[in-house]
Amino acid sequence: MSAAVERIAVRVARKTIEAEGIAGFRLEAADGGALPPFEAGAHIEVLLPSGLVRPYSLCNPPAQAPGHYEIGVLREAASRGGSRALHEAVTEGTLLQVGAPRNLFALDEAAGHSLLLAGGIGITPLLAMAHRLAALGRDFALHCCSRSAARAAYRARLRAETFADRVFFHDDDGPPVQRIDLAATIGEPAPGRQLYVCGPNGFIEAVRATARALGWPEERVHFECFTGAPPPVEEAGGFEVQLRSSGRVVRVPAALSVVDALAAEGIEIPVSCAQGVCGTCLTRVLEGEVAHHDLFLTPAEQAANDQFLPCCSRARSPRLVLDL
Q: What's the pLDDT tens digit per position in 32-49?
């Protein structure tokens, strides 16, 4: 989130424990006013007291804005400071700044049937989708997959919802009969059906692979990841980037991202998630071959080779010329 991005002052009105390792936060406008509205699937970028910026999906019913926002945060074992700060340093009453809602995981509200598949903390955007679909009277099913019941966020809330009969729970440590069968659950790609999946990368890839094998068109399988993948070892070496405006060349060593290498030279690129998920740092590429490692661009957009996310993607060619 850069200085040019709108920031909204919010107060943590309530902090709750939603499951083992998962905290929920209710955010209200610090001045008591209205918050910008949002659509199901949207996220906000949270500026933490440490200066870190992290995106989190909004999980409350969209109709509740402008009253408040709700986010759920999993404490990551390998946290780089974001989830740890929210769990340890942020309490009720803490003042924070957030960006206006952005939606990169939009819901097709006119679909004949929506299948929502959540893996762990991936329930957050799908919870908002379920609320919206229920409010519209649309046909849908929500499947929540967790390692155990103790780690399943928002389970008590979902069981109390008016659409509880459309929600199904699957625990890895539970009886075999309740474990999810992806092929049977996803089924055939009948006209009007849309599939949404969110959660750990492995879960998302398993769902996408199953849907592909069943003949689902890519455009009807929607997904949102929380973390990107590291580049392969063979693509982790150094290279150069050149700035179009000045002709300046900056070396990007193997240990640094393009964003970090440029920042070390006083050249700032707005960045948020730093994992190739949110798209904040999207930069135009004028020359050179990109090694894409983001989860934001579509395969077709990556193949065009005219833009990349410098927080995670690198170069296959010795040099990239950037529109900076």
A: 999 999 999 999 989 887
Task: Yes or no: say if 90 and 23 are a contact pair by the CB < 8 Å rule.
Answer: no
The full set of domains in the chain, from first to last, is 7-99 (2.40.30.10), 113-225 (3.40.50.80), 233-322 (3.10.20.30)
Residue written as token pair 């908002």: 128
Give Cα separations from 185 to 108, 218, 263, 278 (angstroms). Answer: 20, 17, 46, 29
Give the other-Cβ count within 10 Å of 303's Cβ. 11
Supply 280's token pair: 């904040």
At residue 173, what is the residue type? D
As given in the structure block, the two tokens for residue 66 are 């402008």
End-to-end CA distance of the chain: 18
Query: Environment class of residue 318 by beta-carbon count within 10 Å: exposed (0-12), middle (13-18) or buried (19+)?
Result: exposed
- pLDDT for the residue numbered 3: 37
pLDDT in tens, 299-313: 788 999 999 999 999
Per-residue pLDDT of 239-284, as tens digits, reads: 999 999 999 999 999 889 999 999 999 999 988 777 787 788 999 9
- Single out the residue of 59, 32, 30 nearest to residue 47, CA to CA: 30
CA atoms within 13 A on the CB side of 135: 14
